Amino acid sequence: MESNQTITIQTRPSYLVHIGSGLLDRCGQLAAEALTPCRAAVVTDSNVAPLYLSRVEESLRAAGFSVCAHVFPAGEARKNLSTLSDILEFLAQEQLTRSDCVVALGGGVCGDMAGFAAGCYLRGVAYVQIPTTLLSSVDSSVGGKTAVDLRAGKNLAGLFLQPSAVVCDTDCLRTLPPLERADGTAEALKTGVLSGEELFSLFEADDITPHLSEIVGRCIAFKGSVVEQDPLDNGLRRTLNLGHTAGHAIEKCSGYALHHGHAVAAGLAIIARAAEALGWAEEPCAARICAALRRHGLPTGTEYAPAALAQAALADKKRRGGSISLVVPRKIGKCEMVTVPVGDLERIFAAGWEDR
Q: Where are the alpha helices (DSSP H) in the chain?
């Protein structure tokens, strides 16, 4: 059995991220170390519930929690205000109080919506993250960002609420379908571009399975260090959006039919090629990034034209009036913000565009 690890995220309040094998059956004990046992509302989706819900409920009850559960239909299309309303009505129906908690069991959609509901309900109750996908483990479960999509764009309604604890059982990651594995690999690879060679080089191997725990730990430690310095996303934390401006635009153009990680992969490739074409890069890195993405079954281009991507990006959260901030890779391990007029987006996307 692999060794488990615990990472402390020094926000206000601070919390622990537990990573390792066999943790799902200990989630109740780990939650009880962060919260006084109370009524726990587990929020999960229709894909995850048959796999893990009963084990989580059993573990929580064994640790002294009283448990209820809400299951919503799976999919990015369900990450909306209607589903959020259903969750809030469920919490009210179950008469949760401010001393109770929400447990998010699932991938990024579940974590985002359960966290948003926890932050809204009674003006805020505690919540615990139990990510079950690679994408949510390396990214969305840590940092306190919660959101739902609006018709105008992705993640446009949300709030910051740090979890009380995160329990990441790496056993859940080893049985993911290839599409889900690739989604998480894209976000983890993006973190490697941000953090440096030690993490990025792991993605230049054909199989990352032997390195899953190391990858999750390195990604969470890196993101944690950034979040600690900028918990409300006002500066340094915005660099974590590397590849996301084009990526979110691709998602929107696809009607959210394209998975988030695949869209981010294409967005990362676009901005890496654009950085070199426009003279922003200090060292060539686009070829390495694209080769690593392809190695793990991820796209490096898109069918949507630069003009369509530029139009879709106008709703991006990083836009400020007539300008927008792009995260630009200077080299592996060094990425910086570049603010450009929104009118330049089509030209920039064109510089990095490649048909899939």
A: 27-34, 54-62, 81-93, 108-120, 134-135, 178-195, 197-200, 212-229, 244-253, 260-277, 286-295, 306-312, 345-352
Does residue 226 fall inside a structural domain? Answer: no
Nearest to 83 by CA among 51, 52, 46, 49: 46
Question: Tens of pLDDT along 160-191?
Answer: 999 999 999 999 998 899 999 999 999 999 99
In a domain, 104, yes or no: yes
> Residue 329: beta bridge partners?
335
Q: Is residue 27 part of a domain?
A: yes
Q: Are 39 and 100 in contact, with CB atoms under 8 Å apart? A: yes
Residue pair 111/45 in contact by the 8 Å Cβ criterion: no
DSSP 79-111: -SHHHHHHHHHHHHHTT--TT-EEEEEESHHHH
Query: CA 42, CA 54: separation in Å to the nearest integer?
Result: 11
Residues 5-52: tens digit of each pLDDT: 999 999 989 999 999 999 999 999 999 999 999 999 999 999 999 999
Within 8 A by CB and 6+ apart from 101, the residues are 31, 35, 38, 39, 40, 41, 118, 125, 126, 127, 128, 164
Q: Give the residue carrying structure tokens 């390495």.
A: 288
